[in-house]
Amino acid sequence: MTNGGITTCQEFAGRTFYGGAMTQRRLLEGLGVSGAEEGAYRALLRHGPATLAELAVDTGGSAAAIRRMLPRLEDLGLISRLAGRPLRVIATPPNVAIDVLAARRQEEITHSRAAAAALLAESAGRGTGPGPEEVLEVVNGSDAVARRYLQLERNAEHEMMVLVHPPYAVDVSDDGENLLRAARHRAPTRGIYGPLAFEVPGMLEHTRRSVADGEQARLGQVPVKLAIADGRTAMLPLVSESGRAVESALVVHPSALLDALVGLFEVLWQAAVPLRLSEDGGIGGAAWLQQPDREVLALLTAGLKDEAIARQLGLSSRTVQRRVQAILERLGAGTRFQAGYLASRDDLLG
Fold first, then answer.
1. Helix (H, G, I), strand (E, B), or coil: what is residue 346?
2. Is residue 141 domain-shared with residue 250, that is, in the same domain?
3. Residue 180: inside a domain
4. Per-residue pLDDT tens for 153-170?
5. Which InterPro entries does the UniProt record give (predicted)?
6. Model confidence over 230-268: pLDDT tens digits?
7. Distance of CA 157 to CAs 50, 189, 198, 231, Å?
8. CA pair distance 57, 175, nearest whole angstrom
């Protein structure tokens, strides 16, 4: 869950995937708590009220180091001192401590946003448009690309427009990260899924959840990976080579180039066909289509081969081949392409 854009303690209690690599995050890192400070706090939670010497043993440090850290831990609201001698400290209950830290961070963010607006007004006073170096931003490294994309997604207020094509900067098979993203307030999204979008295991389930959360999804041609937030910021791969698409990215700010990218998305959107995946796994359409035939037709229309459909649906290739053949016969289609055309014409995917 989030509270005014601040990530709460539950959201930190897991692992985050960036570019397919898994990293263990410190639980309180996002609230301004250092690793040493968090280690001391968690040790105190496990131990209960403790002297500095006892806490030093639990953390593997020294009592002197713990003593130097005390003012900071008290300022963060993570501990308090008990009366009496020798000096003993007790951990603040996590629900209380983290709520206070989150509220403090929220206040800092609110102040920073107000400052950003004031600074933007100052830059607008130049009376000239943005220079070339202000239009384009280059992001290098898969981790940095993933973080920048998530930032773009979080900051979108009105709409996200996405051309979906693998590889993906954020691991779509990570249920923990997907739940965190779903829990955050997200702007309405329109997504166009290309023929290769569902080649990645877990992508169909990820898309189903997104559609259930309100995303408008369509199947169509995707010439390039692209994400546009609020029509004001776009992000796309820096290089066209598919295997390196998440190693670096180009972020485009308001400019004629951005206008062209928005126009490209709108043209592709008009040409794409709807994909409406229901919560039980089916898609809307003719009554004769039974599960999983409904999804087979949707993935077939998206351009997937039998092997890729089998991986997504957990079926054998032979089973998929039989179902595809049955769908072709029922539609009166001689080819897979014709089946996709007939499904679109007859609104079987709508």
1. coil
2. yes
3. yes
4. 988 989 999 999 888 877
5. Sig_transdc_resp-reg_C-effctor, TrmB-like, Tscrpt_reg_LuxR_C, Tscrpt_reg_TrmB_N, WH-like_DNA-bd_sf, WH_DNA-bd_sf
6. 999 999 998 877 677 788 889 999 999 999 999 999 999
7. 47, 10, 27, 10
8. 37
Residue 68 lies in a domain: yes
Best CA proximity match to 230, nearest among 137, 164, 149, 160:
160
Answer whether residue 24 is part of any domain. no
CA distance 153 to 230: 10
Which candidate, 249, 25, 295, places its Cα nearest to that of 137? Answer: 249
**Angle separating helix axes 293-301 and 306-313, nearest 10 degrees:** 130
For residues 171 and 245, membership in a common domain is answered with yes
Q: What is the pLDDT of residues 178-188, one digit of tens each?
A: 555 554 567 89
CA angle in degrees (0–180, nearest 5) for 35-40-44: 145
DSSP string, 156-202: -SS-EEEEE-SS-SS-TT-HHHHHHHHHS----EEEEE-TTGGGSTT
Answer whether 0.90 is exceeded by the pTM: no
Number of domains present in the structure of the chain: 3
Q: Where are the alpha helices (DSSP H) in the chain?
A: 9-12, 35-47, 52-59, 63-76, 94-124, 132-135, 142-155, 175-183, 203-212, 256-271, 293-301, 306-313, 317-331, 336-345
Q: Determine the angle formed by the axes of helices 63-76 and 52-59, rounding to 10 degrees.
A: 100
Ramachandran angles phi, psi of 234, nearest 5°: -120, 155
Host H or E run for residue 251: strand 248-252
42 falls within a domain: yes
Query: Rounded CA gap, 195 and 317, in Å?
Result: 18
Is the domain of 297 the same as that of 267? Answer: no
CATH number, position 173: 3.30.870.10
User: What does the alpha-carbon distance between residue 93 and residue 75 come to, in Å, rounded to a whole number?
Assistant: 15
Residues 6+ apart with CB under 8 A from 285: 294, 297, 343, 347, 348, 349, 350
Same domain, 263 and 306: no
Distance CA 314, CA 294 (A): 14
